[in-house]
Write a structure and sequence with these properties.
By secondary structure, the protein is α/β, with parallel strands linked by helices. The chain contains 16 helices and 26 strands.
């Protein structure tokens, strides 16, 4: 338990009703999870408003309420704390309740439209291999000291973030690398955390269902760097045209990396094929298992962070060369003399990067077949862009379902087809069922071909009408790979 007056330290209060000299057990912003003597924070979201659930939270045992307006009915047994911004208040009290764990660890945030998970994971694996005690918080998982837990969001809520960081601090973790999403920034989930560094990878078309305009999306990313303290570093990719803009107002130590332009840290790709790349960084050549120019950029970002953390250059490059690919990111599965690639690419820029990389290195490979879909209830403007890119850069493309959620997958595929140029229409096949689409692609696959299955990567489910159905593309690929030469058009089997 903790005294309420200590929990709310540094929260900007407009009004207090009741006593702050009470003790609280925990914090919650979901009234259904409230227990005896909890603080309930009424968050105002785009879909729902926690203010409506204050009575339910009190009924479930809350002894204090944080909200943005005074409720019509006041319970004299309850303390009400009226604030300007309940999301920021939640972030501050979460920091206080868990004793500000981000101040006791070297926390580095990585943001960008594409490459966050790869970069965070590579940093985690690099420092772990160098002997440091390290943790990570990513789209895929929360990891430290052999613990590996699935995460629900790219950037978790303020309470969960501080719980994670507290656990790491208690286990002696020295460094934590964390994905920072635009939603996490805009919703103040990371507000008040003590970052020792921030990394900007890139920005392209995504999340415009939420941010409305690209400028809004870009400027939200920028605020992460605007809020960094002067003791931190701000590292930006100068190959991205927004890289310099991102650093304009930061107080942190400004650093840059790039492949195509002059910057503090540079790299050159010397060789590239389906087994990896030979890259020169800091006048030293090293081989990596990762593939593609965008991954060379991610590796350079990792190297740059390592240098800013004052690690030894040769030792870092030696260990970087041993790191394996991140699951679901350009994962290559060999099928006789064909190549099957599973990749999480679900934005126009990410898909373009993957397809460009394949086309640059496939050389003697004959045909590139792509299976791709778009998620439902998300940015609809990117669907024709993905359709255009996939059809132009593939020899054959199958449009299918991704996570249709509450939308009709047929309508999503129609939107993708709207972006296909007239000269590419004959390349396109529409198959609504994703497993059937993969089966169809396998039936077309010949020796020397490349098959890209894009959009879901590491995910082990498909989200349809509020339900998450088991869907593991690795298992599906293995099944069809074994039966490739026995498949007929009338044969289907569900793989779980």
């Amino acid at each position: 338990m903790m005294e309420l007056k200590k929990v709310i330290y540094k929260v900007s209060l407009k009004m207090t009703i009741g006593s702050v000299n009470i003790r609280v057990n925990d914090i919650s912003f979901d009234s259904r999870e409230v227990k005896k003597n909890n603080i309930f924070v009424a968050l105002k979201g785009s879909i729902d408003n926690g203010f409506k659930y204050i009575d339910k939270a009190i009924l479930n045992g809350a002894n204090s309420i944080i909200c943005e307006e005074v409720p019509e009915v006041i319970d004299k047994k309850i303390t009400y704390l009226i604030v300007q911004d309940s999301k920021r208040a939640l972030a501050i009290i979460s920091n206080n309740f868990y004793d500000n764990p981000s101040k006791k660890i070297c926390l580095i945030g990585i943001t960008g439209t594409n490459g966050k998970t790869t970069t965070v994971t590579l940093l985690y694996e690099l420092l772990k291999s160098l002997g440091f005690k390290v943790g990570m918080i990513s789209t895929i998982s929360f990891k430290y000291n052999g613990i590996d837990e699935n995460t629900l969001h790219t950037t978790p809520d303020s309470i969960t973030l501080n719980q994670y960081l507290r656990r790491m601090v208690d286990h002696g973790i020295e460094y934590c690398f964390m994905e920072v999403s635009s939603h996490g920034i805009d919703q103040s989930r990371i507000f008040g955390l003590n970052f020792k560094g921030g990394v900007f990878l890139n920005i392209s078309h995504d999340h415009l269902d939420y941010h409305k305009t690209f400028k809004d999306y870009r400027d939200v990313k920028k605020t992460f760097f605007d809020q960094l303290p002067k003791e931190a570093f701000a590292l930006s990719n100068f190959d991205d045209k927004n890289g310099k803009y991102i650093l304009q107002n930061t107080l942190a130590d400004k650093k840059s990396f790039s492949i195509n332009s002059y910057s503090d840290y540079n790299a050159v790709i010397l060789e590239s094929d389906f087994s990896g790349m030979l890259i020169k960084i800091n006048n030293t050549d090293f081989w990596t298992h990762l593939i593609g120019k965008y991954n060379a950029s991610n590796l350079l970002a990792v190297y740059s962070v390592a240098m800013l953390l004052k690690l030894d250059s040769i030792n870092v490059l030696s260990h970087l060369s041993k790191l394996k690919n991140v699951r679901g990111r350009f994962d290559i599965i060999n099928a006789k003399k064909a190549k099957i690639i599973i990749d999480y690419a679900h934005t126009p820029d990410a898909l373009k990067n993957v397809l460009t990389s394949i086309n640059e290195i496939r050389k003697d490979f004959k045909k590139l077949i792509t299976v791709v879909g778009c998620g439902g209830d998300r940015d609809k403007k990117k669907r024709p862009l993905i359709g255009k890119i996939a059809s132009i850069k593939s020899d054959k493309v199958i449009f299918t379902s991704d996570n249709p959620r509450n939308e009709d997958p047929k309508k999503i595929i129609e939107s993708m087809n709207n972006g296909v140029p007239s000269e590419c229409i004959k390349k396109v096949i529409n198959v609504i069922n994703r497993e059937e689409a993969i089966r169809k692609a396998f039936s077309m696959l010949k020796s020397g071909d490349v098959l890209l299955i894009a959009g879901k990567g590491h995910e082990e489910f498909q989200e349809v009408k509020g339900r998450k159905k088991p869907f593991n593309e690795y298992k599906i690929v293995e099944y069809f790979k074994k039966r490739r030469f026995q498949i007929t058009s009338g044969r289907k089997k569900n793989i779980k």
